Amino acid sequence: MKVLANDGISKSGIAALEKGGFEVITTKVAQEQVANFINENNVDVILVRSATKVRKDIIDACPGIKIIGRGGVGMDNIDVDYAKSKGIHVINTPASSSESVAELVFGHLFSGVRFLHDSNRNMPLEGDSNFDGLKKAYANGVELRGKTLGIVGIGRIGQATAKMALGLGMKVIAADSFIPEVDVKVDFFDGQSITTKIVSQSLESLFKEADFITLHVPAQNGYIIGEKDFEILKDGVGIVNCARGGVIDEVALVKALDSGKVAFAGLDVFENEPKPEMAILMHSKISLTPHIGAATGEAQDRIGTELASQIITLLS
Prior knowledge:
With 316 residues, this protein is of the alpha/beta class. Helix content is 38%, strand content 19%. The chain has 13 helices and 13 strands. Strands 7-6-10-11-12-13 form a six-stranded parallel β-sheet, sandwiched between helices. Helix 10 (227-232) links the parallel strand 10 (212-215) and strand 11. Belongs to the D-isomer specific 2-hydroxyacid dehydrogenase family. This is D-2-hydroxyacid dehydrogenase.
């Protein structure tokens, strides 16, 4: 059987699939050519990440498809229910990238509280001529320890983020419509651990209480943080979004950054991917990454081998 990994797959994933008797194709096929390629090459399984979309048109055009796999968590680029109605298995890897995304969240948080993103822009330009001026400009950092982190969405990635926050000595609060409470276990290198219970609270109370907010929700029909919501946030709040573009009103975010209501933002995802608005890209108070939350070697290895395991189980 043939597997098309159109957005790539780790070497460990390829090895596991080949050991299971599958032929793995890693040719990058343009979106408009995906259906033709699948049919011409008798592909049984298509694996995607966030780039390739598997919508109704491809599903209808490719009756030979047995599995659609998503390397990662979000499934908004796949017509999941329609595929299942056609008898196609739809799989993903919700646990594989949690730690990688959570670490990126803290990369943005540390960058924001210590101005690293802006300092790294300006030191090459002015470091030799305005060292003291830059030192003064970036001298008002704050510590994360002892601050309150509000996690919107306390699923797997939210819980991984909570563990890191607890390890730093932060207070963690959460809002989640589907998870009323969760026990979060923080494991240490020597085999010891601590477990703490996080009880979900209202989104409005989280907005009022949190010093920093991180979003871990799927794609939404509307904004989680819209123009009116910015009004009730704490003054000087920091906001990180490594989940999905479109859950924060970016126009309102820029206004809040300019007014000082929001101290900084860290964005890995954007309303207009792959062409984020220039006002976002050029803003000195925004730490930026190009949708790389799960893009670590460790996460990709886990994703590849987990997808391989599911495919072999389903089709053997």
